[in-house]
């Protein structure tokens, strides 16, 4: 009998830990997939091919007067081929890192093994590997993930890659309640230029939350209304988009809209409202609304909710 009691307690502890991990996974902003690069390289190849065809056509005509045009066309072709090799390597590495991240999502041991691979199999200056490592570090130590991302020199990156880093950094600052730091980052992002609709939605959710919490609620609402959080294609971003809407609507004083967003979050899991009850720098009316919905749900004891307030 004595042996069964500790066993039951242990089972309960595991259940609580599993629930907390699930909530962390739901609450953290969706991550841009490394398996799908932030640039549509297939489209780039087509455009470059068309440009080169035009260049060689012009060079062929101009060769009647000067052979220099042929050398120019040849030089441009070599540059394009070099860029093509780089792109192929970039895509292949993205797929490799995507596979590592998928293996990490299964168990804690898988996460640790993935981190080990990212630290030992890739150079410390490898930007793609750094982003992947930060995505895993965010689950346990946001500060460490932030430090990893801050080590990337954004001035040396392609614009889509730099914005991906800014977006991830901003999302961590929002989690930590460092709203102004997040705002500084999202103001530098080029929104709407992302090829993938999921990436556009993720960027919009992070930017809108930062704006909604720093006095730019109208701008945030206008951005979010382009997307439908219930769109099946955006299922992975549903929590983040409703969270952003709650902050944005509260930012313009639309508590009806904010309340609807909170109820949508409660449908996923009432515990998600804890981010509004206990988080730093949350609009008082939004905090109060979240508290009331949480208490009505019965998911958390009333006494506990009052203590958080």
SSE topology:
Elements: H1 4-27, H2 41-62, H3 68-104, H4 108-120, H5 127-137, H6 142-150, H7 159-175, H8 179-186, H9 197-212, H10 217-224, H11 238-251, H12 255-268, H13 274-277, H14 284-297, H15 302-308
Helix pairs in contact: 2-3, 3-4, 3-5, 4-5, 5-6, 6-7, 7-8, 7-9, 8-9, 9-10, 9-11, 10-11, 11-12, 12-14
List keywords for this structure.
309 residues; globular; disordered N terminus
Could you write a compact summary of the structure shown?
The protein is mainly alpha-helical. It contains 15 helices and no strands.
Largest sheet: none
- Assign a percent range to the helix content: over 70%
Number of helices: 15
User: End-to-end span in angstroms?
Assistant: 41 Å
Q: SSE string, helix = H, strand = E?
A: HHHHHHHHHHHHHHH
Overall morphology? globular
Describe the protein's architecture and organization.
- The protein is mostly helical and 309 residues long.
- Helix content is 71%, strand content 0%.
- The protein has 15 helices and no strands.
- The chain has helices at 4-27, 41-62, 68-104, 108-120, 127-137, 142-150, 159-175, 179-186, 197-212, 217-224, 238-251, 255-268, 274-277, 284-297, 302-308.
- The longest helix is centred in the first third of the chain and has 37 residues, at 68-104.
- Mean pLDDT is 76; it is low at 1-24, 26-35 and 304-309.
């Amino acid at each position: 009998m004595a042996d069964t009691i500790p066993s039951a307690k242990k089972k309960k502890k595991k259940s609580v830990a599993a629930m907390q991990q699930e909530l962390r996974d739901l609450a953290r902003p969706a991550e841009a997939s490394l398996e799908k690069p932030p640039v549509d390289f297939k489209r780039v190849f087509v455009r470059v091919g068309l440009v080169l065809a035009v260049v060689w056509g012009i060079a062929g005509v101009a060769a009647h007067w000067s052979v220099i045009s042929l050398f120019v066309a040849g030089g441009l072709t070599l540059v394009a081929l070099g860029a093509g090799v780089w792109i192929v390597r970039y895509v292949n590495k993205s797929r490799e890192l995507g596979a590592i991240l998928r293996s990490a999502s299964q168990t804690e041991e898988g996460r640790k093994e993935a981190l080990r691979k990212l630290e030992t199999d890739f150079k410390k200056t490898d930007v793609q590997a750094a982003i992947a490592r930060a995505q895993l570090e965010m689950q346990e130590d946001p500060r460490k993930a932030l430090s990893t991302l801050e080590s990337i020199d954004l001035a040396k990156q392609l614009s889509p890659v730099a914005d991906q880093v800014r977006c991830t950094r901003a999302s961590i600052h929002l989690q930590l309640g460092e709203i102004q730091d997040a705002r500084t980052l999202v103001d530098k992002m080029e929104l709407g230029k992302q090829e993938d609709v999921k990436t556009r939605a993720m960027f919009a959710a992070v930017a809108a939350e930062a704006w909604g919490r720093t006095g730019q609620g109208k701008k945030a609402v206008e951005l979010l209304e382009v997307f439908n959080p219930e769109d099946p294609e955006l299922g992975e971003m549903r929590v983040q988009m409703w969270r952003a809407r709650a902050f944005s609507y509260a930012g313009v004083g639309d508590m009806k809209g904010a309340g609807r967003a909170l109820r949508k979050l409660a449908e996923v899991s009432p515990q998600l409202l804890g981010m509004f009850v206990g988080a730093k720098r949350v609009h008082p009316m939004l905090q109060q609304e979240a508290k009331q919905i949480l208490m009505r749900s019965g998911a958390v004891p009333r006494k506990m909710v009052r203590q958080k307030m």
